[in-house]
Design a protein that fits this description.
The protein contains 15 helices and 19 strands. It is of the alpha/beta class. The structure holds flavin-adenine dinucleotide. Flavin-adenine dinucleotide binds next to helix 1, strand 14 and helix 15.
Length: 493
């Protein structure tokens, strides 16, 4: 009889796991508490404005192409991609810097800031390319059940070139001296959830992704990606059950026997939990079936949470690009207020995304769709007054730098922070993107894909391997599905 697999969550990891399980011939059912797929990458509409709720940077395009190709499909049949040029604008204290979608041009611009920087950029990117090829080619596809998976000659040889034990802050300073260039190159590390001095230089692979591979945009918004992935999974035979909050994983003698959705119990032969790992363990399983204790979770370094604002503006705002980074205050101070001495940041750096600059579909003619993001320490709270204070601060800075009035042109606003990350995604401490990518939380040192207690329970998503971000979450779902197939069901057939 066909084996039945339940997948909890229709974020990127759950969608990818669903497509792979269905392709492998399992009867696949996805249960999602929301009414649409995407998880953190859902969207909502308001009077002709379409707001992407989470991710906005489309990096590592080959990971997406590979997903569709794996099912005999083409990404282009689902959504159109555009490479942004300039990739993004950085607002430094006294001036702006546009990052061109061309490495030579970027080198020339950096040379004007620091003599020798063009050549140093070439060398830096050459090393980053090796890290990217190894990291994305070898490391990222390891299920990381054990350290022994990494004991292959090719990988051990490459380890020396990966600079796992050198912090990226030090690595970048080997090539560049000017603070603006350093800040520019440390920016992608913000995605990884730890300070540059705690992040291995391996992650200069993100600089390669940024500068060489480029920043892309799916026409219609980021939400087009999960909508397309859902179609692929359905074509493979997966069945989706929305508005279906999983309340319990039912177990018997070291095995999962089913799940409870609402008040209904359903039988399954295996489960892939692709929701927040901590939530699944602590809320859906009894203590004796949990692989990790509460003190384990408390000892983890979480990535930051975020204070987000979705704004509809009744006019166009010149002076902003699609992606804008406000690095007009101290990076060190903000990082300290996130990681060392967690508190609401005094003068935060922030990110403004204006997709209406590229895509007329996300805002009515002559109007602007703006998404603001302030990284904030996890495990904090905020009330309406505090959020309003921050919005005022950000708008003032936007007005100052663009020279146009914005405040009185806001015709819709919605905020989102820790409280919503918890209520919407069951997110541990309200984190936005999982565990920080420190050396001690990398690969086999992350929470495992496979439960240590229940032989047919598997995990996927940003809190397990390979880590946070859209491309890694897609890979994670596939890893979990292949692991079930190769290590669990194959032994039973
Ligand atoms: C604000 C923000 C900006 C980001 N920016 C970027 C970016 O620009 N580029 C990038 O690559 N990455 C970005 N990320 C990270 C990226 O979005 C995530 O790493 C990725 O989406 C995680 O996917 P996931 O499937 O692991 O988890 P999720 O997206 O959280 O999906 C899990 C799903 O499980 C569901 N669920 C949870 N519990 C249950 C339950 N009990 N029953 C049923 N369903 C349940 C949830 O509703 C959710 O739909 C960003 C994240 C945030 C929050």
């Amino acid at each position: 009889m066909t084996k039945r697999i339940a997948i909890i969550g229709a974020g990127f990891a759950g969608l990818s796991a669903a497509a792979k399980c269905a392709q492998l011939g399992y009867e696949t059912h996805v249960f999602e508490k929301h009414s649409t797929p995407g998880g953190r990458c859902r969207a909502f509409n308001h009077n002709g404005f379409l707001f992407d709720m989470g991710p906005s940077w489309y990096w590592m395009p080959e990971v997406f192409e590979e997903f569709f190709a794996e099912y005999g499909d083409k990404r282009a049949d689902y959504y159109e991609l555009e490479r942004l040029n300039p990739s993004y604008r950085v607002f430094f204290n006294s001036h702006e810097f546009d990052v061109p979608a061309n490495t030579n041009l970027l080198g020339q611009k950096l040379e004007e800031i620091e003599p020798g920087a063009a050549n140093n950029l070439k060398q830096f990117l050459k090393e980053a390319e090796i890290k990217y090829e190894t990291g994305m080619g070898e490391f990222v596809h390891k299920p990381s059940h054990s350290i022994f998976e990494f004991f292959q000659f090719k990988i051990v040889k490459a380890l020396f070139q990966l600079h796992l034990f050198t912090p990226i802050s030090k690595h970048i300073r080997k090539f560049f001296k000017h603070p603006e260039i350093i800040q520019l190159l440390e920016f992608p590390v913000l995605f990884l959830g730890a300070k540059p001095n705690k992040t291995p230089a391996l992650y200069s692979l993100m600089n390669y992704a940024d500068i060489e591979l480029g920043t892309w945009y799916p026409k219609g918004g980021m939400v087009e990606i999960p909508l397309a992935m859902e179609k692929v999974a359905v074509k493979q035979g997966a069945q989706f059950h929305y508005n279906s909050d999983v309340k319990k994983i039912i177990t018997q003698e070291g095995k999962v026997t089913g799940i409870q959705v609402g008040n209904e119990n359903m039988k399954f032969d295996a489960v892939i939990a692709a929701g927040d790992y901590h939530h699944i363990e602590s809320k859906l399983l009894n203590v004796e079936n949990q692989s990790y204790s509460q003190s384990y979770w408390e000892s983890r370094t979480m990535s930051p949470s975020s204070l987000l604002f979705y704004l509809a503006i009744d006019k166009e705002i010149p002076g902003l690009l699609h992606h804008n980074l406000f690095f007009d205050h101290s990076f060190d101070k903000h990082a300290e207020e996130i990681y060392d001495n967690p508190q609401w940041p005094s003068k935060p750096l922030f990110y403004a995304c204006v997709p209406s600059k590229t895509d007329k579909r996300v805002a009515p003619e002559g109007k602007e769709n703006i998404f603001l993001l302030v990284p904030v320490a996890p495990d904090m709270t905020s009330d309406e007054n505090l959020r309003e204070e921050y919005l005022k601060m950000l708008i003032e800075r936007l007005e100052k730098r663009t020279g146009v009035a914005i405040q009185e042109h806001i015709i819709y606003k919605r905020s989102f922070a820790h409280e919503e990350f918890i209520s919407e995604y069951n997110s541990f401490k309200g984190n936005a993107y999982g565990l920080a990518n420190t050396l001690m939380q990398t690969a086999f040192l992350k929470p495992k894909l496979r439960s240590k207690k229940l032989e047919n329970l598997f995990f996927a998503g940003q809190l397990t391997v390979p880590g946070p971000g859209v491309p890694p979450s897609i890979i994670s779902g596939k890893l979990a599905a292949n692991t079930i197939h190769q290590t669990y069901f194959s032994k039973r057939s």
